[in-house]
Amino acid sequence: MPDQPAALISLQQHLHHTRLLGSISSALYYDQNTVMPPAGAAWRGDQLALLASQLHERQSSAAYADLLAAAEDAAGEAVGGDVPDALRRNLQLLRLELERQRCLDPALVQALARAQSRGNALWQEARRSNDFSAFAPGLSELVQLRRQQARQLAAAEPADRSPWEILAQPFEPDISKAQLNALFTPLKEVLPQLLDRVATASAGPEPAASARAAGSPAELPEALQEQLCSELLQSWGYDPSRCQRSRSAHPFSCTLGPADFRITTRVVPGQPFSAFLATAHEWGHSLYEQGLPWGDDHYFPWPLGEATSMGVHESQSLFWECRVARGRAFAERWYPRFRTGLEADPWGNASRFWRQLNPLQPGLIRVEADELSYGLHIVLRYELELALLEQEMPVAELPAAWNGRMQELLGIRPASDAEGCLQDIHWAEGLFGYFPSYALGHLISAQLAETLEADIGPIERHVDAGEEATLQGWLAGHVWPLGRSVNGAELVERVSGRPLSAEPFLGYLEHKLERLLAVG
Amino acid sequence: MPDQPAALISLQQHLHHTRLLGSISSALYYDQNTVMPPAGAAWRGDQLALLASQLHERQSSAAYADLLAAAEDAAGEAVGGDVPDALRRNLQLLRLELERQRCLDPALVQALARAQSRGNALWQEARRSNDFSAFAPGLSELVQLRRQQARQLAAAEPADRSPWEILAQPFEPDISKAQLNALFTPLKEVLPQLLDRVATASAGPEPAASARAAGSPAELPEALQEQLCSELLQSWGYDPSRCQRSRSAHPFSCTLGPADFRITTRVVPGQPFSAFLATAHEWGHSLYEQGLPWGDDHYFPWPLGEATSMGVHESQSLFWECRVARGRAFAERWYPRFRTGLEADPWGNASRFWRQLNPLQPGLIRVEADELSYGLHIVLRYELELALLEQEMPVAELPAAWNGRMQELLGIRPASDAEGCLQDIHWAEGLFGYFPSYALGHLISAQLAETLEADIGPIERHVDAGEEATLQGWLAGHVWPLGRSVNGAELVERVSGRPLSAEPFLGYLEHKLERLLAVG
Known about the structure:
520 residues, three-stranded mixed β-sheet
């Protein structure tokens, strides 16, 4: 943005400084999860709290409000009322975020931070001892505080937004329950039917359909898994001058600067594909971040250079994990590499190798769920969040509600709360409104993939030819540069020409299921 | 410090916050040198500059000055004029540092930062192209600015301190040229004689004395070197819950929090002992840091919990590298491990293995120097710093002065400035006054070791019994807990009962040399 008025330059400097602090925080988080010895945690917590308070101050202070107001004035004056789109959008997003920060009573912000920390501690203990009642008071407090937060934030929101919708805005801008209903209803209808089809098929004499148990080795040598992850990244454009892969207990992706991208993976005993698929997944997140409109860094501090929603972010990781790495053509190509140095071939042929990359068996744990049942795990959580936040369901009823609905949706019932409503960390930290983004990611990925295939032909054909770069090129041309110029729903409509629906996802699943079951 | 006056608590909070920022900076530095992809450097530079400016502000602001003054008043009042030693010393050290900060013209601080950055860039290029004249203007500017800095700082220093002495204070508190003269004169006399003795011995028919060339394998497998480093640390009390070892281009040790200690090593092609000895060295630094009086963290933000001087710090790393790891008993014990998995034994016996751990050949490069010639490299630099800063020697004369003095001291002459006066980074960043600490480390280490041996018997005997923990225990009892309660010279006198001298070091070298030459 050359030749800007002074007020805009001051604002950009403020944002640059804010972004520096935010990225320092990310660097500490990365170190904490990859390198830091455990005893460093207390001091690290103090460091992060210091940065968080500096960040909050910078994002909500009267000085910043003045800076933003001056920039808004200057933008209008400088261009005679005709503010360029990008600048208008940047200022709009900054204004919205500031108004939200300023709606909040600082006492509530502090109470929430304390309750989140307490909730996390209670949850750790409750999960360990499988005792929901130990967690219930913490969860109850978090629900109350978050409802209070939604009431305070309502002043900055459209009048018709419900408390749950308000809390979901940071993750999925402009999301509504009506939209989610329209998207989730087909999932609730069709996914159980698909699961039934799998169950029927696997009830026959052919045991191979019972997922991971059949055919896959319990272990692939760790060095081989590491090697495969490296080769995968190399073939997908990993540039060691800008990227770094480390190991951590839970895989994640994070961006530490405009040219500093990190991902982490782990080797999981007994899950021979876990590291490889997680690498594909996290690299998908990272590719999106790398493709955001930062260019020469001038967008990095501005909102337009950010990811637009968690759903879109997840769509990019799922594209590379599910559409590409779990696809048949990819399995055909990589099957020989997975056998490197193994004494016996645990799969026998490429079809069975591909089949093992795609387990199809409903389980109790969301993070281990296959593509068929994943959406139902989310529906369950979304319904229960609404019940807790908007329908006065007492926290004490959560375990029974969870188990009953799990039985209805997936046909299985947790034997304990530890593998039921205590399995995820999100609620323990007061994170309500986030889960649907995971399911939206599947839907968005499928709809964008349909458009991509209409445009440049089947994904499998490109993968078969070893030309994943073409797929990257398409995403880099159509999806990544949009940044926050559009929200998630608008992005899908802009790219695919029609509103987001569940249809492409369900169509993709039916087709893939048919082919998988044909293998056995 | 329980039951403190409010002003002391406020001061401690301020220092805690300052220490958090400083340690965040260290965490970024650690990440930069171990993990960060190269393209992240520009943004990382911005992050570090932001933290540096926050730190400078916190350490020199009027608000901080008020806080310190209030604490000084409160300390005096609270105890009726009889301030406890520890508190008095803490306040004294803080006051001294504040007065130094406040002597400096902010314009000079900025000019120095720019000149350091420029100096580094010019030096990189000059060293690459072996062209001292490209570096000379940058060095000249740095000399002028540092002289100016010394003039400004003089207001906070005793009247008789010279410019060089003033600049050396941050590294070696209370150091004087008179002290250094007394310590370095014997080095200049004796070390060349010892080098002559080696030369005479190696001129004979026995080729083994020509250091690394003879007997040592060009390479030890990297995995073996890594394994040996891990075993070394494990046997020396490395606690993975508080410590972390990573790899970096140049080995270093740093502390990121009161329970978070990092060291780094590297495997150097063609130098089979480099990683192992560097691990011993860096772990020595880390042990000292771990043994500083932090206890329950109440000393961590206070000066008393800090290392007292670079010379003492270096004495601790050199103790473990030279006195222990390069010692004969240690070599006897580790010789079998170094042969693990090797097809042939490259050394033949433990004596020759030990001999190879102790090269004895003067070279041009300081960081590769042996124990005999290292001190002379420092004498050279110290004399040239005095010439530049206090004796008006023109920068242009540096190369000739360097080469001439190198010939006199070590009997060798650089063929190029790249392996002469351009070899170190210190001056390129305006770092004058630092080099002597390296030599002081050798002297202090020897004098402390002599006391230790008088107290609990020969180091070799403990090592022979695999009881290095006893050595650690002695240092932990006598040296580490002193923190900054004493300066480096006082520490040596306190522990050994007499002033620091070169005698123990030279005595140690003569004895070791005799034994080494007996091997061949």
